[in-house]
Design goal:
By secondary structure, the chain is of the alpha/beta class. 37% of the residues lie in helices and 24% in strands. A hairpin with a 2-residue loop joins strand 6 and strand 7. The N and C termini lie far apart (50 Å).
Length: 347
C-alpha cells in the first residue's frame, strides 16, 4: 500500500465511497504524495514518453502552425504564447526555436505556462528561464492568445456512470472486504435508456477550461491547438494507469502511477463554439503532421546525420503507433483563416 493509498482508505472509512474524479485529483495532485508533485514522469526513466520527447520535429510542426496563424491574423504584438500542462518544457523549447525564423514573432511572444506541479515548474524554469507560471487558464492575460495543450486533457479527473437495471449509478472508489481499494456503485438514478452495463464518462473540468481559453480568443484573437488521445462522442470505460511504461491497475499504486482517460473531443468543440470561436474537425495526429510537412523535415534531418529521424517520423505518424491514437483539434478567432492542416467544423 502506498502512503497515499493509506490516506485514501482512511478517508473512505470516515466519509464513505469517493467519487472517481476526487480520487484522480488526489492521486495526481496531492501536495505531498501526488504523482505530479513528487516526480518527473517523462522519458525512459519515467512512466511514459510524450511526442515532444520523441523528436524535435513534433514541436517544430506545432510552432510553425502557430506561426502561420499569427501571420494570418496580422502579426499581433504583444501576444501570449501559452501551454497548459507543459511537462518538462520540451515542446515550448522547440516551439520557440521554430518561431524564431518568423521576423518579429519571438520578440512579440510572452510565454505563459499553466502548471499545477511545483516540481515541474522548477524543471520548466531551468529550461526556459523567466516565464510566467499560472495556476489556471482563467489567469491568462487579456491579449491575443496562441496556445497549445498536448496530453493535458487526458489527465483531467473524470466521473463514470454505469447503466444498471434500475438506472444510472456512479462508479465510486470504495474498500473491499480486505480493506483494499476497489470500485463500487453508488445509488441508481433515472436517466436515458442504454444497454445494461454500459459506462459513460464525463470530464467536469474540460468544458470550463475550453470556455476560458475560447473567451480570450473571441475577444482578442488567436488560436488554440489541442492534441490528445481519444475520439469523437466516445463512450465506455477508458480509465487507465501507466507505471514504468506498462499498463497498471488504476487503484493499485495511488500517487505512483499516471492516471488518464481518453478525451471526448465533441464536447470540447461544442464549448469552443459556444464561446463564439470557430472549431475544426478533429484530425489524426499523423495526418495533421504530414499535412504540415513533417516527412520532408525528417528526410532532411536524416540526410544531415540524424539516425533516429525516420524512426521518429514513423512513431509520430504511423496508424499503428501514435499517428491514429492521438487526435488534434483547433479553435481560432472568428473571421481568421483556417489554421494550417485543419478543416472547419460545419453545422
Amino acid at each position: 500500500m502506498t502512503p497515499l493509498a493509506g490516506l485514501i482508505a482512511a478517508r473512505i472509512r470516515m466519509s464513505g465511497p469517493m467519487r472517481l474524479d476526487d480520487y484522480m485529483r488526489l492521486c495526481l495532485l496531492h501536495p505531498r504524495h501526488g504523482y505530479y508533485a513528487t516526480r518527473d514522469p517523462f522519458g525512459a526513466a519515467g512512466d511514459f514518453t510524450t511526442a515532444p520527447e520523441i523528436s524535435q520535429m513534433f514541436g517544430e510542426m506545432v510552432g510553425l502552425a502557430l506561426a502561420q496563424a499569427w501571420l494570418d491574423q496580422g502579426r499581433p504584438a504583444p501576444f501570449a504564447l501559452a501551454e497548459i500542462g507543459p511537462g518538462r518544457g520540451t515542446l515550448m523549447v522547440d516551439i520557440l526555436r521554430a518561431i524564431r525564423i518568423v521576423p518579429g514573432m519571438a520578440d512579440a511572444a510572452q510565454v505563459h505556462l499553466v502548471e499545477a506541479s511545483a516540481h515541474l515548474r522548477q524543471v520548466q524554469r531551468a529550461r526556459l528561464g523567466a516565464v510566467a507560471h499560472l495556476d489556471d487558464v482563467a489567469e491568462l492575460p487579456e491579449m491575443p492568445l496562441f496556445l497549445v495543450a498536448n496530453e493535458f486533457f487526458d489527465a483531467l479527473p473524470i466521473r463514470q456512470f454505469q447503466r444498471s437495471a434500475d438506472g444510472w449509478a456512479e462508479r465510486m472508489v470504495t474498500l473491499d472486504d480486505s480493506g483494499a481499494l476497489a470500485l463500487g456503485l453508488g445509488p441508481a438514478l433515472p436517466g436515458p435508456a442504454a444497454p445494461e452495463g454500459q459506462i459513460r464518462e464525463t470530464c467536469p473540468d474540460a468544458g470550463p477550461i475550453v470556455s476560458a481559453i475560447a473567451a480570450r480568443i473571441a475577444g482578442h484573437g488567436g488560436l488554440a491547438i489541442v492534441i490528445d488521445y481519444g475520439d469523437w462522442d466516445g463512450h465506455g470505460d477508458t480509465f487507465q494507469a501507466l507505471r514504468r511504461h506498462r499498463p497498471e491497475d488504476p487503484l493499485a499504486y495511488p500517487g505512483e502511477a499516471d492516471l488518464t482517460a481518453h478525451v471526448d473531443f465533441a464536447p470540447l468543440a461544442a464549448a469552443a463554439r459556444a464561446a463564439e470561436v470557430r472549431a475544426s474537425r478533429r484530425i489524426t495526429q499523423g495526418d495533421w503532421l504530414l499535412r504540415l510537412g513533417i516527412a520532408p523535415r525528417a528526410e532532411r534531418l536524416a540526410a544531415a546525420g540524424d539516425a533516429g529521424a525516420m524512426a521518429a517520423l514513423h512513431r509520430l505518424t504511423a496508424p499503428g503507433e501514435m499517428g491514429h491514437l492521438f487526435k488534434v483539434l483547433a479553435f481560432w478567432a472568428p473571421g481568421a483563416p483556417v489554421p494550417p492542416g485543419f478543416e472547419p467544423l460545419e453545422n
